[in-house]
Amino acid sequence: MTEGIAELNLTRIGEHVVRWTVHDVADYLRISVKTIYKWRLTGDGPVGVRIGKHLRYDPADVVAWFESQKTAA
Q1: What is the pTM of this model?
Q2: Where would I find the Helix-turn-helix domain in this sequence (predicted)?
Q3: Model confidence over 26-55: pLDDT tens digits?
Q4: Total structural domains in the chain?
Q5: Sequence-ordered list of residues with C-beta below 8 angstroms from that of 51, at least 6 positions apart, any chain
Q6: Is 2 inside a domain boundary?
């Protein structure tokens, strides 16, 4: 693992990137699943897609969102 953030795992099945679950996003960002759901309700956090009853995230979107959160200290 890298310091402060889990390594990006872009698993592929054929031509398609496997989408992340809420648990995958929480693990990557090292936050709780509850926070991911709260962000979804408030319109914060990375964009997720509902597929039936399942919520999925494109790993590239999660990384892009994370990078956009950086501010000068």
Answers
A1: 0.75
A2: 21-69
A3: 999 999 999 999 999 999 999 999 999 999
A4: 1
A5: 19
A6: no
